Amino acid sequence: MDAGEAGFLEATRASYDALAVDYAAWIRDELAAKPLDRAMLDAFAERVRPGPVADIGCGPGRITAYLHARGVEAFGIDLSPRMIEVARETYPDLRFEAGSMLDPDVAGVPDGSLRGLVAWYSIIHVPEERLPEVLAGFRRVLAPGGHLLLGFQAGDEVSRRTSAGGHAVSLDFHHRRPDDVADLLVRTGLDVRARLVREPDEAGDFAETTPQAFLLARRPPTGPAST
User: Fold this and answer.
1) Backbone angles phi, psi at 159, to 5 degrees
2) 168 in Cβ contact with 162 (< 8 Å)
3) Helix segments in the chain, DSSP class H
4) Is the dihedral of CA 91, 96, 98, 101 positive or negative?
5) 191 burial level (CB within 10 Å; 0-12, 13-18, 19+)
6) Are the C-beta atoms of residues 48 and 147 closer than 8 Å to each other?
């Protein structure tokens, strides 16, 4: 790990440690206001039940809990230890572990062990040059026929935030073109099965300024049977 990567990871970890409690309170009811987002998660849940499924970059655990409520054996992994503490306090019956998607072993998940993996707005902080490595790691831990669901802001800019909710942070937000991410998934060895790009919700407590993108991909099965 070079000094630049270490700095990026430390800045992201420290930022979310500082934000964890306030962020968890703010984001808790967001899915209730996003029916199309729920539809993608529901479609993913149907394909990966009963699991196991890793929620990588789980934050305070709301997506892990949403999938669990739909019969998925989901567990969460996050870079921020404080986020993991909040997730465990909020959902004590679910499993949450600290770890990084940039680790070579994807936070200790064995190769080929997952029925599914969701990265819900967690690749948004990954530098462009590291994204191929991250997606290759996701493919490696999926079992043949396993599914990957990505959520991210659509676009081609990088925005930086130095404050959020009254806290000092240092976060880069990488907006990405859905077609570019889809092409990268294919080059990684994953089949893109569905994509949704919706316009921003411009009102309410969770107003957005950019379109939102969701890609569902699958590691090809080894035999003739498919899911």
Assistant:
1) -110, 150
2) yes
3) 3-27, 35-48, 62-69, 81-90, 131-141, 178-188
4) negative
5) middle
6) yes
Of the candidates 140, 60, 150, the one whose C-alpha atom is nearest the C-alpha of residue 108 is: 140
Asked if 198 and 36 count as a contact pair (C-beta separation under 8 A), the reply is: yes
Burial class of residue 96 (count of CB atoms within 10 Å of its CB; 0-12, 13-18, 19+): buried
pLDDT greater at residue 116 or residue 226: 116
Could you tell me the sign of the dihedral formed by the alpha carbons of 2, 136, 38, 78, in that order?
A: negative
Q: Who contacts 192 (Cβ-Cβ below 8 Å, separation ≥6)? A: 182, 185, 186, 215, 216, 217
Closest CA to 153 of 108, 123, 132, 190: 123
Q: How far is the C-alpha of 143 from the C-alpha of 177, rounded, in Å?
A: 27
0.90 surpassed by pTM: yes
Residues 6+ apart with CB under 8 A from 89: none
SS3 of 106, please?
A: coil
Q: Which of 12, 44, 9 is CA-nearest to residue 218?
A: 44
d(CA 14, CA 168): 10
Task: Name which residue leads in pLDDT, 211 or 204.
Answer: 211
Q: Give the sheet arrangement for strand 114-120, strand by strand.
A: 96-98, 74-78, 53-56, 114-120, 142-153, 212-218, 191-198
What is the model's pLDDT at position 2?
A: 43
Q: Which amino acid is at 146?
A: G
Query: How confident is the model at residue 5, as a pLDDT?
Result: 54
Taking the C-alpha atoms of residue 159 and residue 171, their distance in angstroms, rounded to an integer, is 8
